[in-house]
Amino acid sequence: MLGAVNRNREPPLGELFPFPSAFSFSPRFSDDGDFVLLPGFCDVHVHFREPGFSYKETILTGSRAAARGGYTQVCTMPNLNPVPDCMAHLQPQLDAIARDACIRVSPYGAITEGERGERLAQMDELAPHVCAFSDDGRGVQSEETMRAAMQRAKRLGKIVAAHCEDNSLLHGGYIHDGQYAARHGHRGICSRSEYGQILRDLRIAEETGCAYHVCHISTKESVQAIREAKARGVDVSCETAPHYLVLTDADLHEDGRFKMNPPLRGEEDRQALLEGLLDGTIDMLATDHAPHTAQEKSRGLEKSAFGIVGLETAFPILYTRLIRPGILSMRRAVELLCINPRRRFGLPFGEDYTVFELKGPYQIDPERFASLGRATPFAGETVFGRCILTVCGGKTVWQEN
């Protein structure tokens, strides 16, 4: 199907990165440019909801959705029931992964017991079984607690991945504190609620030497703070999500499928994120795939649950909105979607790959998703980049039709 490789489109990735031998290749295009062969993607920020909320998503449906999107490795966040704050609470998730996952799934351990931000979780016993530690869904409000967590994680050789959100600045907000909120009478979430806590954590990471990762950054100030910290030698990495790169609060509708946390910000923020993506400040792309039931997402901007799904739309949105117009190269996209997340989190490369059809347009139809979640701001959008094959560990885990 792919035929001879056209090597004129991108410089070989192997010249720039010391891949394992199986990955010493550039994105491989068919002669007619209709198809591209890429290494399997890696998403370090997904919510598969099992155990505790399997009516929203399961390891089975979530991993199938990932495979359908070209992903062969994901890391699952710990806002579950029970919260994986000790081995007894992590084991049900490990059992479900072993039983049902069709790709590689690595769980996070919680930073604090019950993600309540008070006492530290049993990090020592969790460390061999988790990819990193996070209280995602909540910011750790106490500086003392975060310092203790970073000191412990440093000793254990683990990353602290932070959802940065200062609760004292939220004031009941649920969308960006921008023009849309002002015009439509909505309560806004200010940018400082994100970047203020990032600044605090960067200072602690610099003091402790902990490997620190910032989840789903959305503001221009966050980009600049991380850029400056990297220049100082702080061991920090960060991610953003595709929706923050192509949408702003000007694109909002009175519909829960546009509600996520952090919220869609302003155009200046979007431009800063793109700049950070291109200059290396932003290390990777993650979807923050967060499925909810149709009922939970049907209550408008104010009352719907936070979160959208993204595993099955990430590449087509990036390809259509950024790669195809020449804003982002395919080579850089592979770094962001595959190479950098695996390197940072110490995840295996494996001999995984995915194939996308590039020239045939299609409409995003949530009813065709493998995920149980259907809420996406991209429903009905015409895109290019349909995943037709995903192979993980030599096994076909998704094939179109």
Question: Can you walk me through this structure?
Answer:
The structure is a single chain. This protein has 401 residues and is an alpha/beta fold. It has twelve helices and 16 strands. The protein has a five-stranded antiparallel sheet with strand order 1-2-12-15-16, covered by helices on one side. Strand 1 (28-29) and strand 2 form a beta hairpin. Helix 6 (192-208) packs parallel to helix 7 (220-232) and helix 7 packs parallel to helix 9.
Task: List the SSEs and their pairings.
Blueprint: E1 28-29, E2 35-39, E3 41-46, H1 59-68, E4 71-76, H2 87-100, E5 104-107, H3 123-126, H4 143-156, E6 160-162, E7 175-176, H5 179-184, E8 188-189, H6 192-208, E9 212-214, H7 220-232, E10 236-240, H8 242-246, H9 267-279, E11 284-285, H10 300-303, H11 314-323, H12 330-345, E12 353-357, E13 362-363, E14 382-383, E15 386-392, E16 395-399
Parallel strand pairs: 3-4, 4-5, 6-9, 7-8, 9-10, 10-11
Antiparallel strand pairs: 1-2, 2-12, 12-15, 13-14, 15-16
Helix pairs in contact: 4-6, 6-7, 7-9
What descriptive keywords fit this protein?
401 residues; alpha/beta; 5-stranded antiparallel beta sheet; 16 strands; 31% helix; globular; disordered N terminus
Uncertain segments of ≥5 residues (pLDDT<50)? 1-24
Taking the sheet with the most strands, its summary is:
5 strands, antiparallel
Q: Can you count the helices? A: 12
Overall body shape: globular
Beta-strand content bin = 15-25%
Q: What is the radius of gyration computed over CA atoms, rounded to a whole number of angstroms?
A: 20 Å
Helix content: 25-40%
Secondary-structure-derived class = alpha/beta
Termini separation: 16 Å
